Amino acid sequence: MAVKHLILGVLLEGEANGYRVCARLADLTGAGRRIESSRVYATLARLEGAGAVAARVDARAGGGTTRVFRLTPDGAREVDRWLLRPVAIAERLRRPLLARVAIAAALPEAAAAGLASDLDARRRALRGLASPAPGTPVAALASERARRRLAIEIALLEELTATTGIAAPPAVSSRPTPRCAASGSR
User: Fold this and answer.
1) Do residues 47 and 53 touch, judged by C-beta distance below 8 A?
2) Helix (H) or strand (E) holding 35
3) What is the CA radius of gyration of the chain?
4) Tens place of pLDDT for every residue, the chain, 186 residues?
5) Residues 144, 163: Cα–Cα separation, whole Å
6) Is 0.70 topped by the overall pTM?
7) 17 pairs with which residues across the strands?
8) CA dist 16 to 57, 109, 147, Å?
9) Which domains does the chain have, with CATH numbers?
């Protein structure tokens, strides 16, 4: 689930208590996706159990205590692995891509290679869908929908790379490559 990776991404910025993690997640995900604090705390507990985060107890200024979480080397490796692995094109839910975009916007240097890989994979997929789909009108409609979705995702990734300064792979034409015809035939 992307929530785990969002939390790890927030902790890449530095130590934070659960309240600050929730606040930063709200900033990253915007109004479109609310992540319940109970889910954040449960995920933090699982990440701590897995060794991806470590916690310490600090005294609060007005009395009481708070747990402060930090990323461990294992957690940092998991974020790197997640950022570098392309999001599967076949995934119908684009939430993993949007989660990665949110982290990349906050920490572009950590996500550059993964986003460049996502952009390249989407460009290749769009080239593969450039020619009309054979078969039924439903297949053609599904192919057109996939082309539009990929074009939107490519535009999103290109905009992110332009605004953050992440080096994007060179753009390629979305037109199909011409097939070589036999000499003298058309």
Assistant:
1) yes
2) none
3) 21
4) 478 988 998 898 889 999 999 988 887 766 556 788 999 999 999 999 999 999 999 998 888 999 999 999 999 888 888 877 766 644 444 566 766 766 766 666 666 777 777 888 888 888 877 766 566 565 666 677 778 888 888 887 887 777 666 655 455 444 443 333 333 433
5) 29
6) no
7) 68
8) 11, 21, 41
9) 1-84 (1.10.10.10)
Residue recorded with tokens 């593969």: 128
Tokens 């986003």 belong to residue: 115
If we measure between CA atoms, which residue out of 168, 172, 170, 163 comes closest to residue 113? 168
Yes or no: say if 27 and 101 are a contact pair by the CB < 8 Å rule. Answer: no
Q: What does DSSP say about strands 16-17 and 53-59: parallel, antiparallel, or unpaired?
A: unpaired
Place of tokens 């054979």: 134
Assign 82 to helix, strand or coil: helix
Q: Where are the alpha helices (DSSP H) in 51-172?
A: 73-84, 95-106, 108-128, 137-164
Phi, psi of 13 (to 5 degrees): -75, -20
* Identity of the residue numbered 180: C
